[in-house]
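Lab meeting prep.
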Amino acid sequence: MRATSSVIVGRDSEIGLLGRALDGAARGSGSAVFLVGEAGIGKSRLAGECAFRAYGLDMPVLRGRATSTGLVVPFRPLAEALSSRFRAAGTPDDAELVPYRPALASLVPEWRGGAAPGYPDSLIELAEALLRLLSVLGRERGCVILLEDLHDADTETVAVVEYLVDNVAGLPVLLVATLRPDPGPALDLAHAAELRGTASARELGPLGDEAVRDMIAACLETGRGEVPQAAHRLLSERAGGNPYVLEVLLADLLDTGRLGRTDEGWRLAERFDPTVPTGIVRSWARRLARLDEPVRTLLLTAATLGGRFSVSALKDVTGFDDRSLFAHLRSASEAGIITPDGAAYDQYTFRHVLTAEALRATLPPAEQAALARQAAEVLEAPGDTGRELSDETRQLVAALRLAAGDEAAAARQLVLVGRHMLAAGAAGSAVVLLERARKLAADDGRDAVTVSLAVAQAQCGQLDTARALLDDLAPVPAGSPAAEARAEALVEVAWVTTMAEQREEALVLTRAARALLGPAPLPVHEAALAVVEGHLTLLPGHAGREELAETERSARRAALIAEEHRTPVVACRAWQLLALLSRERGFDEADACLERMLAVSEEHRLPVWRAEALVRLGANAFMRSGEATRLETARSAARELGSLALLQHIDGMLAMQAVLGGRWERATEIVEQSVEASVRVRNHAAHRYLLLVRATSAAHQGRSRERDQALTRLRRAGGEESMLVPLQRGLCQAMGALMEEDRDRALAELDAALAWERAHPSFFYLSGRYGLRPLLRVLSGADDRAAYRETLASPGAALAWNRVFLGMADAVLLGREKDRAGAMRAVRAAGEAARAFPQAWHLALRLTAEAALADGWGEPVAWLRTAEEYFYGAGVQPVAAACRAALRQAGVTVSQRRGGRERIPAGLREVGVTPREHEVFVLLAERPGNQEIARRLHISPRTVEKHLASLLAKTGCADRAALCALSAETAESAAQD
């Protein structure tokens, strides 16, 4: 007889918490709840109640459970949760999810596009994609994701859950996770999240005395007053307030007839056998004895396979035919012992994990070991198909071998799975498995496991741990197979260390690898080392010109050797290094290296390296011509790969291309959709670049207040310690100074950028060194034809943006040399280069016109009119005013601009503020003096005083400070709009 309660008792506080959380999710105010407690304490009942209430609110519910068998299967609870929803409702087709489908492909089979399932390159990218998916699912009514038995989850799942917990606030999502209070990452996460206020954690204690009575009454479907006092006392003592144990013991009392209903109500036998079970194990032994022999065999075998088991594995081990197998499964299910697992079609699970443990405990230890050994042998047998065992089956075999007492055999299986997961990118799970294998391995095999574990730790970012593992290994003879394997691990750890810019540590590792390989390493080993050592030379302050030349020669040899020996990852690393080193000689050579890198990656199906090659080719094409076709191709590849980090990096470049093209609204749109997401996924490099784009966009529009705010954020994000300093000083701040007509400050910023580049390796060519700076120095007379030729010989001079300014510098020099026809040819050439850069072209015209007027060549008046029209329309009033002033000085009649009323805020228009007064008002946000305002607007200080007096009268401000505050407030409101 089954004895289960149809209601939850003693958990009113927890039910109230979940109810409030559901209401919050429905309103778009997400939260996370952890339910912590021992096995059987009622965590799953509460999760089920939460799901029931969510269904009642028509909320999507996603429910997954970690495996309780000890198997490490990355993302299994998450994949089950998504499957539980999509199996019935289908996958969502919202357009906004398209960029995130590749990242979610490892969890959603329908989004794999025919490719083999794999693990994502970045857990944070996967977590962000999952967060976006949940937000879409919960858009109308909120949604709930329930993850049970999180203590059994893999490290990757726990990392994703942590990201969800930290970012779910403000979204229509409720996350509920259940776990035992066992020490481990899941419990650490629950406690840490509660401390930082991002989640609620509730520890479920045993039921109190009255709650036990209520539960017994609910199980018996009777009034609480009809429960025999003796039965209540007995069950309270033996169950210890655990609902699951209480139900099992109550079922045993009912099955044995010691508790039964009479005409007078429920009665407990006054006398009973002294061998009556005193715990859950003996209760299950009694229940098993009452089952048919085949069903008993099936259940004991299933319990040996774990709390959750595969029907196909159970069939292989028991030898039952399909008809008998499913008949016995149905009998066990009807008895309330097992149940079909809704997350997988061929899986069953015990009603509670304690059930499997109790069933195994009914067997003597020797019989348990024998049954486990038999099951392992059956599962390991290749069968007629000679199939390769899956990772999950290998872990099950390892668990069975361990239960049978064969630790070495268990270790061998775990090592195979760990190395496979490491190769597939699941480094966190690989660490867990390899650590288990290392503890179990025989002495003669432990060092090989340790080497693999060190590489896995390094890929997880645990560089100190990886180094310590390798340092603890016993010495091996240089040049031996063991030494070669160890050296390969050192090189991989050194690569990760180099990418983390830990130069000294990486050098130590490469030297150790060379010592292991001996004086004559194999070419393939030499190639791998040369590539790592070559990348080290690019770190700031390391290599001189001669060393860089030798690095390039070594990298070229390494690339050819790696291709010959079919080590494609080393080849891609080598071609990537060569592309950087050869850029100083020209972009054609750099692109040839990247094209080879692309070919290798495509031949060997390395999607990450393919996307990396496309990004670098796209960036080069953008800098050379200003067009973004190849960048868009690279973006498509990154989207297919599911790499949010690459997507954000490419979006930054596309946004900068929009800034240089004068498409500032498009640049803002790109930045705003990526800048905050880049923080969440800890893509710090892309985040800094997006902030630089934001600052540069504001600077090019003459919005100094917005520029300075963005630069402050960039500084806080580490921008001044990054490779972006030359772009910040030149492309952003120098251009911003020119938009304020401050050439001296612009030259100072350009000089600072050049000084930084001379002290650090730099591969940026848009800092002004090869275009804007030479033009300004030619205009000031500081540079002559010789300096121009020196700049022209640099690869940076070939970039379209730089050709605009460098061409105009040539025109100025030719004009001074009285070669008027040559000067005009140079202007036309600059105009051809400027097709994609309207602001650069009009700035160059404005700068060059004065020199043309002075030297009597060209069409300076037409140029100034064109520039004035452009900058007036763009709202860059200082430059527009400077153009008008230059025209007047040239004796040209210039009509005063009286338009622009549409730019004046409604409140100021209503009180009669004129366009010219508004120009003064806008500048007051920065609190400049009258002389500064006069200089920037090309009017007299006396005129500024008149405008200020008029503004004070019209706005009703008490004084200049109040007027400045109003200006700042108006600018802030406009920025938010």
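Slide two material, second protein:
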Amino acid sequence: MSRRGPRHFEKLVFALSDANDPADAGMSRFHDRLLAADPGDELLALWSRRLTAWDFEQSPSWSADTAPRTPERRAAVYDKLMFGGELRKALDGAVPVHEEAGPVTISREFQPWYTREQAANRSFYWTSYERLLRRKGWSDAAVSSLDEAAHAVVERLADPTRETPYGARGLVVGYVQSGKTANFTGVTAKAIDAGYRLVIVLGGTLNLLRGQTQRRLDMELIGQENILGAADRDDPDALVGIDYQDDEDWPAKFVSFGARPSDLGAFDIERLTSRDRDYRSLERGISALEFEKPDRSRPLHDPANLHAARARVMVVKKNKSVLEKLVKDLKKIGPILGEIPALIIDDESDQASVNTTDPKKWEAGTVTRTAINGQISKLLGLLPRAQYVGYTATPFANVFVDPGDEEDIFPRDFLISLPRPTGYMGVQDFHDLDTVDDETGDAEEKHVRGIYDSTGDRLQEALDAFVLTGALKLYRAEHGVPSGPFRHHTMLVHESVRMAEHAALALRINTMWHNAAYTGPEGHSRLASLFDRDFHTYADGSLPTPGTYADLKPFVSRSCQLIKQGGSPVIVVNGESERDYAQPDLDFDRTPNVWKILVGGTKLSRGFTVEGLTITYYRRTTQQADTLMQMGRWFGFRPGYRDLVRLYIGREESLGRGRNAKTVDLYEAFEAICRDEELFRAELARYADLVDGRPQVTPAQIPPLVAQHLPWVKPSARNKMFNAELVEVRSPGTPIEPAAYPQDAKMTARNTERWKPVLAAVSGSPVTCRLVPDDTSPLSRSFQAASTVISHAQLLSVLSSLEWEDGNVLAPHLAYLSQLDGRLAKVDDWLVLAPQRTQRSRIEATVLGQGPLSLFRRSRQTGKLSFGRISGLEHRLYAQQLIERPESAADGAPVLGATRGVILLYPVVEAAHDDEVKAVASTGTAASDRVIMAFTVIPPKTAIDTKQRLVRFRTKDSTRPDAVYVDAL
């Protein structure tokens, strides 16, 4: 049934039954057996596994017209099995349909080769990996979900036996710390089973990270027999030089096949790197990549040779010198490289792998590449049968890669977005994305502790929480909760990227720790208070939690002992050299218990899994969304203690310096990029469904769909965004103020002419605009302004007709404003205010026969088209007050309502001094080519849809210079 899909079950059972006792095969007996089965029953487990696998299968030949993970698919399974209503009901009760979303795939059309039948025929390493996952406690749904996602990747790689070489390029998008390694381990297992014979995993930029990945693959895929080779495991001398002999998980937790795979009818795996040795050179020289061929007259990729050959696996650090050695060695091998089906897996593919050089600085006809990107490009060139699959949780840099650069890593063949795994603590656990206004939701209340000016830094409280949660883990372990997840208990403190500040902060934490008096009355009093108001209040009722602090108190001392073992409770994790990371207390694999406070910066953010992370103290600011997202180490799996997880995060942090300084809310920033990520996934899902059996769009046709909910957080670092074009900026309640007006006199005159109908409407008597006292001033202030109201259509007509010298700087804003006719939101009209200067400094003139109008002086920034600020501070504050209070007027101010915006309109003379403005107005009439009609547009706050998307980018394609953007729907 597993290979050909479900079939008539009763007939199959009868055919396979014992001829002497056919009564055992009766369906009524089967039905009764299922109803009587306990949760751990072997028969029930078998049917759970099979039904779940059929539920998840993508486009099976036996039911191509039903979607996976749906009641319709399950009904189709029952129809094939010929099960009646009672049996269906019994199975549905025991094995409910898992309806959560599966992976989303955007793909080119591809030649099917990796069918389910093919996968089942050659599945030695996948079957072993699947068994291991089940032993680790993975549910049937989790295993089937991984199977489905890994199969979707491998079937889009090139057939390893095809005659003409082809290298597919793909990207798999997961969640931060969500098990991407499990997915690429599954992909590797399926790929080598299918015939890929060289696997190169690019595993991080540090030996620490590379070693973590190597150990994971060795433990869960490669296995004891391949690690030992011909060495006798019972001979100590034979084990010298073989890694993991000091690993407490060896050999018990390392997969074993029972014998060498080649003795079991499969093939062996040869490791070209080990846990402690990165790639240096081929240890046996070129012969390490000489593949045995039973038929030397045929190429390696011929099935007669391929499936008998050993696979080679290496886990390589993303380091220029290491990759250069690998490329140099491969060049020596010669023509055989063209025969090797290879798979390159790039973990954290948006880090170091993307070409970040500026195309504007390239020499004509050449592409300048960064060091790592250049080496990856060379690898792909040397291995024409190499498939490249990138893995990342922050895909923005990858989708901004130029699709036209054939030697780069743009995912031209497929992009797969993995579903959120069951049990994963992610966005929804820390952010209440569905709340309205400023209300606090359950997630924030349970897990987030804001750091404000009024709260102080709360660092002592965070330390207390670390001690308290350690004690709670020990309490739970003693009361029946599996203690495995409590092996490590960590706190992460991340305030800065500067190493000197890390040292000072570590010293401060050490001092606080030694003064905390955790075993004295003062310390116990603090912990008891924190327990009562926080951890007891928000404890998971399904897990054992003491009723009072007195019941927890005996475990506090042990928690403190574990934290300070080795002398210090703090580890500093930073530096540029490998020795900075070779600390025993930082090795989660070899150290029995890591109970420490980790202080660090960037190196703690990428790929490095902080095991047992329970308390996070985060105050570092950044303007890149992908950097900020990777700092989110508090996302992940927290079995048995997810209710104890706390995030202490800055809500009023300084960003920038001098005039550019601002105060930002890091929690709000995280929420914004989380929304970006969810939107990106949702947009992919819109295009994923096939139409008439064909993809609606290919990866190269998808706009990056990268949105920003906060203007100061960009999707990726500037040097990764040279192929990104700004498409749309949405500004509900926020000023839109172009600054780069034309210098050409004729263009200026034409633009001024286009404002004439509006100028005619504002030529009446001025009104007094009074500001409400606020944070900027306790005093009441006012100014005079001419005013009118124009329709939304009239505003669009004017703005759409304006000319600009250096590209249409207004285009992204017009893309937004044009949708305020009801498609995105509804704006009926606009209040136009033409402010006047004070009576003492006022210079007036008519413009195009309208007025007189008050002329304003503005200067361009040195060497730029841009002026500085267009709108005056008081004018902008007044307009903003009207927008903020659309339904209530203060001191005679107009009531806007929800569908009216505000425009500030300024007749501007480009001048450094007022004398120049007076000269322009000397006759009482200002020439239209001397007056720039500058403006600020502030849409109402309601001018946005429920998605709250504010900024959107698209990707350029260098192969289509006449097309501004990549094709999109």
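Talking points for slide two:
The mean pLDDT is 85.
The first helix runs from residue 9 to 16.
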